[in-house]
Specification:
Elements: H1 29-49, E1 52-54, E2 57-59, H2 77-91, H3 94-110, H4 123-137, H5 140-155, H6 172-181, H7 185-192, H8 194-198, E3 200-201, E4 206-207, E5 217-218, H9 225-239, H10 242-256, E6 271-272, H11 291-305, H12 308-322, H13 344-356, H14 363-375, E7 377-379, E8 382-384, H15 407-421
Antiparallel strand pairs: 1-2, 3-4, 5-6, 7-8
Length: about 450
C-alpha cells in the first residue's frame, strides 16, 4: 500500500486517538483540505488513465482488465461521469468537463443495448448522468439521450414492476427517485404507485417482498423497506401526494420497531429471516444495510414531516456508527471496504451532511479521511483503493473504478470533505437521486 499524501497524518494507534484539526496536532484543517485535494486529484488521474477512448466516447470497465465496458451508475461510466462533473466544479479544470462530455457520449451510444431499467444497474441511472451533463455543461445531445433512455424505461413497465427486483438498487424505488431527479415526475409516480397495493401489513407497519419469491424481508436502504420508504416520501413530497408519505411512514414504523440497540443507538438486522446467514453477517453499519444509510432516510422523513423524532433517530444511527469500531477492521469481514456503498466513503457522506446541518464537527469525518489516506495505493499512475474479501486468497481485491466500490464514489466524498475542511460551500455539483439534500435551520 502506498503512503498517505504529505500532511494527512497517519494514525499512530489503531484506535485513531488523534483529532483532525486539534490544536495539539501538526495539521490545520486548511492543510488537511489541501492534501485531501491532492489525494482526490491522484485518484482522478488513475480513473482517466483507465478510460478507453472509442469512436463513441470514453468508456470504463468496472475494474482494470475487464473486457466488457460498464455504462451503469453503480459500477460504471454513469457514476464516473458524475464524479467528473464534481471534479470540474471543484478544481475548475476543463479536462474533467471534456471527459464528462465524452463519457456521456459513450453512455448515450449504449442506451439502446441496455435491457435493465433500474437506477443503479440500468437505463434510469444512465439517464440521470446524461441529464447532469446537459445541466452543467449544456450538452443537448446528452439531454436527448436521457429522454430516449427514460422513454424506453416507460415502455417496459408491466403495470407493476420492471424486473424481479422491487426495491431501490434494482427496482421501482430507484427508478422513481431517478425519474424525479431527471425531471420526469409522472414516471416517478408510475413507479411508486404499485407499492400501495403490494404492501404487506406487519405488527408495527408495512413491508414489501423486495424480490419475487424471496422469503426474507430486507429492512435497509439498498434492497429493503427503507429504500422504498425513501422513494415514497420523496415522490409524495415533491408531487403533493400525502397518501404516499403516509405509506412511507408505515414502512418506516416497521423498521423502527426492529431496533435492537438501546435507547441511545439504532441497529436493525440485515434481514428477517436472515438471508444467506452462511455468508452475510446479521448486522452491518454502512450505507447499504446499516445505520449510515438508515440515517439518510430518517433525515429525509424529518425534512418532509418536520417531526424532530426522525432527526432523533438519525442521531441515534450516528451514535451506533461512531461506536461500532469502524473504520478499524475489528475482525475478518468487518469493515473491509473503503467504497461509497458498503464502506468508509458512505459514512463520510453522512458525517459531512451532519456537519453541513450544524449537527456535529468534522472530527469523525477526519478520522475516516485519515483511514482512506492510509489505505490508498499512491504511485505514478495516481491513487486508488483495494477492498478486501477475507474468504478468498489473496484477500486484497483489484481496485475498482466506479461509484459503489471504487474511486468514483470515494473521490466524490473526499472533495466534499475538502471543501468543508477549507470553510468553502460544501454542496455537490450533482444531487444524487437517493441522497437527501442538506437542510439547515433556516431551510433547504
Amino acid at each position: 500500500m502506498g503512503p498517505a499524501p504529505r500532511g494527512i497524518e497517519k494514525p499512530r494507534h489503531p484506535d485513531f486517538p488523534e483529532r483532525f484539526g486539534d490544536r495539539e496536532t501538526l495539521w490545520t484543517m486548511t492543510t488537511v483540505a489541501s492534501d485531501v485535494e491532492t489525494l482526490a486529484a491522484g485518484a482522478m488521474r488513475w480513473l482517466l488513465g483507465l478510460a478507453g477512448d472509442t469512436q463513441n466516447g470514453l468508456v470504463w470497465a468496472g475494474r482494470p482488465g475487464d473486457d466488457e465496458v460498464d455504462p451503469t451508475l453503480y459500477s460504471g461510466a454513469a457514476g464516473i461521469v458524475i464524479t467528473l462533473l464534481e471534479a470540474h466544479q471543484h478544481f475548475g479544470d476543463d479536462r474533467y468537463a471534456d471527459a464528462a462530455v465524452r463519457g456521456g457520449r459513450a453512455i448515450a451510444a449504449a442506451v439502446d443495448d441496455v435491457d435493465h431499467c433500474s437506477l443503479y444497474f440500468g437505463l434510469t441511472g444512465m439517464a440521470v448522468a446524461l441529464r447532469a451533463v446537459d445541466r452543467l455543461l449544456g450538452d443537448s445531445a446528452a439531454a436527448a439521450a436521457a429522454d430516449r433512455a427514460l422513454d424506453l424505461v416507460r415502455s417496459r413497465f408491466d403495470g407493476e414492476r420492471w424486473s424481479d427486483q422491487f426495491e431501490l438498487l434494482g427496482g421501482n424505488a430507484g427508478i422513481a427517485l431517478g425519474a424525479l431527479a431527471a425531471d420526469e415526475p409522472d414516471l416517478a409516480i408510475l413507479a411508486v404507485t404499485p407499492y400501495e397495493r403490494t404492501a404487506q401489513t406487519t405488527v408495527s407497519g408495512v413491508h414489501w417482498e423486495v424480490r419475487a419469491g424471496m422469503e426474507a424481508r430486507f429492512h435497509h436502504i439498498s434492497h429493503g423497506t427503507l429504500g422504498i420508504v425513501q422513494a415514497l416520501a420523496g415522490i409524495g413530497h415533491a408531487t403533493g401526494r400525502p397518501e404516499l408519505i403516509e405509506l412511507a411512514l408505515a414502512g418506516a414504523a416497521d423498521v423502527v420497531s426492529r431496533n435492537e440497540a438501546d435507547r441511545s443507538g439504532f441497529l436493525v438486522p440485515h434481514s428477517d429471516p436472515q438471508h444467506r446467514p452462511e455468508l452475510i453477517e446479521r448486522y452491518s453499519f454502512g450505507w447499504c444495510h446499516g445505520p449510515a444509510g438508515d440515517a439518510q432516510v430518517f433525515r429525509l422523513l424529518g425534512a418532509v414531516t418536520r417531526d424532530s423524532a426522525w432527526q432523533d433517530l438519525a442521531d441515534r444511527c450516528w451514535h451506533t456508527v461512531t461506536h461500532s469500531g469502524l473504520p478499524r477492521r475489528v475482525r475478518p469481514g468487518f469493515w473491509d471496504n473503503s467504497g461509497r456503498c458498503c464502506g468508509t466513503a458512505g459514512v463520510l457522506a453522512l458525517a459531512c451532511d451532519r456537519y453541513a446541518e450544524g449537527r456535529g464537527d468534522l472530527d469523525f469525518a477526519g478520522l475516516l479521511v485519515n483511514d482512506l489516506a492510509r489505505l490508498a495505493t499512491v504511485d505514478g499512475d495516481g491513487a486508488r483503493w483495494s477492498n478486501h474479501e477475507h474468504r478468498v486468497t489473496p484477500s486484497t481485491l483489484e481496485p475498482r473504478t466506479g461509484w459503489a466500490m471504487g474511486n468514483a464514489g470515494i473521490v466524490r466524498e473526499l472533495l466534499r470533505f475538502g471543501r468543508a475542511a477549507a470553510g468553502r460551500d460544501p454542496p455537490y455539483a450533482v444531487t444524487w437521486p437517493d441522497h437527501p439534500a442538506v437542510v439547515t435551520a433556516g431551510g433547504a
